[in-house]
Design brief:
With about 170 residues, this protein is of the alpha+beta class. Helix content is about 40%, strand content about 25%. It has a 7-stranded antiparallel β-sheet, covered by helices on one side.
Length: about 170
């Protein structure tokens, strides 16, 4: 399994709009895989990996926002603008920026193709309270868990991509 790195956001990252403003939090995790990966395949693998499927179950009951693997494929391939608790805020050929239903968090995906593989990026933004300009005590307490969870989600997406490649090779 390739190692996951924590990096500054790339210069052209859609998530940068939240990087330095009003006390917002952003992060960026990256892993390099030896295969060429298209953005839709990365997003679909991310949202259909077992760990994220667990989050989808929670969202189904806690937020009344059910989603299916088909819904994940539809958002990944640009056939819809909403998935579970998120809507598309911005999309380019190699990036997707999603906004949660409360407009408090963002999820960002990016692929950067290289001659010997693809860099897969995943990042988040948490917006500060408009009145206080702060993220709050609870956010600060949960930040280490958020970072571990983000790494686990990216790792799960890579595993899911590898499973898809293995299945395709077996055909």
């Amino acid at each position: 399994m390739p190692s996951i790195s924590t990096l500054p956001l790339p210069e052209d990252a859609l998530l940068r709009r939240y990087e330095n403003g009003a006390g917002h939090y952003t992060d960026c995790f990256m892993v390099t895989v030896p295969e060429t990966v298209e953005l839709p395949h990365f997003i679909e693998a991310f949202y259909t990996a077992p760990l994220f499927r667990s989050e989808r179950v929670i969202l189904k009951y806690a937020a009344k926002r059910p989603s299916t693997d088909k819904d994940a494929a539809d958002i990944a391939h640009g056939r819809t603008q909403a998935f579970a608790a998120w809507t598309v805020e911005a999309r380019t050929e190699n990036q997707l920026l999603m906004c949660d239903m409360a407009s408090k968090t963002r999820s960002w995906f990016m692929v950067d193709k290289m001659r010997d593989g693809t860099r897969l990026y995943f990042g988040s933004a948490v917006t500060a309270d408009k009145k206080t300009g702060r993220l709050g005590f609870l956010f600060n307490v949960l930040l280490p868990i958020h970072k571990l969870y983000s790494r686990a989600l990216l790792k799960g997406a890579v595993k899911r991509l590898n499973q898809g490649l293995a299945q395709a090779a077996a055909r």
